[in-house]
Automatic annotation (TrEMBL):
Alphabetical list of Gene3D superfamilies matching this protein: Tetratricopeptide repeat domain
InterPro entries: TPR-like_helical_dom_sf
Classification lineage: Bacteria, Pseudomonadati, Bacteroidota, Cytophagia, Cytophagales
Protein's name according to its UniProt entry: Uncharacterized protein
Organism per entry: Splendidivirga corallicola
Length: 141
């Protein structure tokens, strides 16, 4: 019985350390992404933010930044994908013990509705999506 207890304890400890390491890597990516943006190296910043989003990073930064980048590039479809992922993460991944989870969830829900409306507005004005109109290809999946 004690052997099983210590094996489980060791496994949980390893997973906690692995989780901490992963979080440190993700935070570094966010800082690097912000620095790359300042340098005008947007495509490189996008790659870093996408990596964090694919790993369900539980902070708002990569979702906000990537959604803003896509919005500025008129890649509204990609912006919507990012914001949908943010809503999913804040509903299902982020701890309810965090005091900001609900306000961030509402922020992303509201921003998602604005992005959808913006895309529809463009389609009504030009008869096509901005991605089709400008020949833009999305990079986030």
């Amino acid at each position: 019985m004690f052997k099983l207890f210590f094996k489980i304890r060791k496994l949980l400890s390893f997973r906690r350390e692995e989780s901490i390491h992963s979080s440190v890597v993700q935070v570094k990516r966010n800082f690097q992404g912000a620095e790359l943006e300042k340098q005008g190296r947007i495509n490189e910043a996008i790659v870093l933010y996408q990596a964090n989003i694919k790993e369900h990073f539980d902070g708002a930064h990569p979702y906000k930044r990537l959604a803003s980048i896509y919005h500025n590039q008129m890649k509204y479809h990609e912006e919507v994908k990012v914001l949908n992922k943010a809503v999913y993460v804040y509903k299902n991944v982020v701890s309810r013990e965090r005091t900001d989870w609900e306000s961030k969830l509402n922020y992303f829900k509201n921003r998602l509705e604005v992005a959808k409306a913006k895309r529809e507005e463009f389609k009504k004005s030009y008869g096509t999506s901005p991605e089709e109109h400008f020949g833009l290809k999305g990079s986030f999946s």
